[in-house]
Design brief:
Order of helices and strands: HHHEEHHHHHHHHHHHHHHHHH
Largest sheet: 2 strands, antiparallel
Strand content: under 5%
Number of strands: 2
Number of helices: 20
Mean pLDDT: 78
Radius of gyration: 35 Å
Strand order of the largest sheet: 1-2
Low-confidence stretches: 1-20, 458-467
Shape: elongated
C-alpha cells in the first residue's frame, strides 16, 4: 500500500478551536470522506457482503499494523508499505468488508493529533481496500482457477494503488499545498512499486490458504516481508547510486571550472593561447568520441586539452608575446612548457594522470619529440590525440607574424606527418570528422569553441547537435 495519502496529509490542520472561525476545507473534505466510507460499507452490507472469520481479520490486521512500521521510500513523496499484502489477501479471500476492516486496523497506531489527518488517511485506506475487494469479487467464482485468482489479485492491487494516488492528489488540491497534477504523476512509481512485486506473492498466499490450510498464511507472510525489505534495499541502492552520480557530475563541473580558470590565467598574457586551448579541447574530445573511447576518456582528454599549454605561464616574460620567429635558444625555452605544465598540474589533487598526458603532448611517433623522446606506443594515447588537435588548430589560426592556413592545407600536412610525427589512427579519425564538418568547425570559431563555453557541457552538446 502506498503511503502517499499519509505524506499529503502529514501537516493537516486540527479542527478549528474557535467556533467563530470558518471551517477548514480539509475538515469538510475529511467529514465527507468519512460519510462516503460509511455509505460504501453500508451498501456492501445491503448487497449481501459479509465479514470473514474474526480471527482472520484480527491476524491480518495485526500484520497490517506491523507493516505500517516499516515503510520503503520510493521517492521524496511516496512511501510503500507491505500492508498491501494483508489488505489484498483479505479482499480476495474474505471480500471487501473484511479488506476495509484490515486496512482500518492497520492505522490504529496512527490515532493521534491532528485527528483530521488520521481520519483522512484511514478513510482513504478503507475505501481503497473496499474497492479492491469489490474488484476482486467481480471476477471470482465458487471454484476459481489459478488464472482467475491471479486476475483478482492484480485487480485488487491496481484498484487500491490507483484510488490511493487519486485521493492523495485530491487532498493536495483541497489543502492548496501543491498541484494535484503533480500528485497524479506519482501513480506510476506507486503501481511499479506494488503490483509487479506483490501480486505473485499474494497469489501464492491465496492458493495456500485454500488448498493447504488457513494457518499456512503464517508461513508465507515472513517471505513476503523479506521481499518487501529486499525492495527497500534495492531502492536504497538506487538512491545511493543517484547521489554518487550527482556527486560525480558536480566534480566534473568543478574540474571544468578549475581548468578554465587556469586557462584564464594565460589569457592575461596571450589571448591566442587561451582560445587555442579551448579549441584543442573540443577537437580532442571529438576525436576520442570518433575513436570509440569511453565517455570517461572523452571527458579526460577534454580537460587535458584545456590545460595542455598551462606551462606557458612559467615562461620568461616577452617570449609568448614575441611577434616574430623564435631563436634556437628561445625555442628550447618554449619547449620547456610541457614540463612546467606537468609540474603545475601534479600539485593538484586527482590531476596526476592529466599532468602525465600534458607532459607528453609534444612527443612524436618516431621518437624525435620532447621532452622525453618517447616512441610510438610509449606515448599515452590521449597525448597523441591532443598532439593532432593542437597541430591542426595552430596551423589554422592566424598569428601576428603569419596568416591562418586553409583547412585543406592543414589536413594535408597532418596526413603527410602521419606515422612519423602523428599517430595514423588519430589522424584518420580526425580527418573523418573534418570531412563532414561546417566551416565554423574547421576554423575553430563555432560558439562552443569559446573558453567560457567550456564551463557548460550542455552548451557543448547543443552546439554539437546543431553542427
Amino acid at each position: 500500500m502506498s503511503s502517499f495519502a499519509q505524506n499529503s496529509a502529514e501537516t493537516l490542520p486540527a479542527p478549528c478551536a474557535n467556533v467563530g472561525r470558518s471551517v477548514e476545507p480539509i475538515t469538510v473534505f475529511a467529514l465527507g470522506l468519512a460519510l462516503a466510507t460509511a455509505a460504501f460499507a453500508g451498501g456492501l452490507v445491503i448487497t449481501g457482503s459479509s465479514f470473514g472469520p474474526a480471527w482472520a481479520i484480527l491476524v491480518l490486521g495485526g500484520f497490517s499494523i506491523l507493516a505500517e512500521r516499516h515503510p520503503v521510500r520510493v521517492n521524496s513523496n511516496v512511501e510503500l508499505t507491505v500492508s498491501i499484502l494483508p489488505v489484498a489477501f483479505a479482499a480476495v479471500v474474505h471480500g471487501p468488508l473484511s479488506a476495509m476492516a484490515v486496512g482500518a486496523i492497520g492505522l490504529v497506531i496512527t490515532f493521534r493529533p491532528p485527528y483530521i489527518r488520521w481520519l483522512v488517511w484511514t478513510c482513504t485506506r478503507a475505501l481503497g481496500a473496499g474497492l479492491a475487494g469489490a474488484a476482486a469479487t467481480s471476477v471470482l467464482v465458487d471454484d476459481p482457477s489459478a488464472g482467475q485468482i491471479f486476475l483478482a489479485v492484480a485487480l485488487a492491487c491496481l484498484c487500491d494503488a490507483i484510488f490511493d494516488a487519486v485521493l492523495g492528489a485530491i487532498v493536495v488540491a483541497v489543502r492548496g499545498s501543491g498541484s494535484s497534477r503533480d500528485g497524479l504523476r506519482l501513480l506510476r512509481p506507486i503501481l511499479l512499486g506494488t503490483v509487479p512485486l506483490y501480486t505473485p506473492v499474494i497469489v501464492l498466499l491465496v492458493y495456500a490458504y485454500g488448498e493447504l490450510s488457513p494457518w499456512s498464511i503464517l508461513l508465507f507472510l515472513a517471505p513476503a516481508f523479506a521481499a518487501h525489505r529486499l525492495h527497500g534495499l534495492y531502492r536504497e541502492q538506487r538512491e545511493t547510486t543517484d547521489q554518487l552520480s550527482l556527486v560525480n557530475e558536480r566534480l566534473g563541473r568543478a574540474n571544468l571550472s578549475f581548468a578554465t580558470a587556469l586557462v584564464a590565467a594565460l589569457d592575461a598574457r596571450d589571448q591566442y593561447t587561451a582560445g587555442h586551448s579551448a579549441a584543442v579541447a573540443v577537437y580532442a574530445r571529438d576525436i576520442a568520441e570518433r575513436m570509440g573511447l569511453p565517455p570517461e576518456e572523452q571527458q579526460l582528454v577534454h580537460l587535458c586539452g584545456l590545460v595542455h599549454d598551462i606551462g606557458k605561464v612559467g615562461l620568461p616574460a616577452g617570449l609568448l608575446e614575441k611577434p616574430g620567429a623564435l631563436t634556437l635558444d628561445e625555442r628550447r625555452r618554449m619547449e620547456e612548457h610541457s614540463i612546467i605544465g606537468e609540474r603545475i598540474l601534479a600539485n593538484v589533487e586527482d590531476y596526476t594522470e592529466i599532468a602525465r598526458i600534458v607532459r607528453h603532448h609534444h612527443e612524436r611517433m618516431d621518437g624525435n619529440g620532447y621532452p622525453d623522446r618517447l616512441l610510438a606506443s610509449e606515448i599515452p594515447l590521449l597525448s597523441r590525440i591532443i598532439a593532432v588537435a593542437d597541430a591542426y588548430n595552430a596551423m589554422t589560426s592566424g598569428r601576428p607574424y603569419r596568416d591562418a592556413m586553409p583547412s585543406r592545407v592543414a589536413r594535408f600536412r597532418l596526413a603527410q606527418a602521419a606515422g612519423t610525427q602523428f599517430d595514423t589512427t588519430v589522424v584518420a579519425a580526425f580527418e573523418a570528422i573534418l570531412a563532414g564538418s561546417s566551416d565554423t568547425y574547421l576554423s575553430g570559431v563555432r560558439p562552443d569553441f569559446a573558453i567560457e563555453a567550456q564551463r557548460q557541457p550542455a552548451l557543448l552538446e547543443r552546439a554539437a547537435i546543431v553542427a
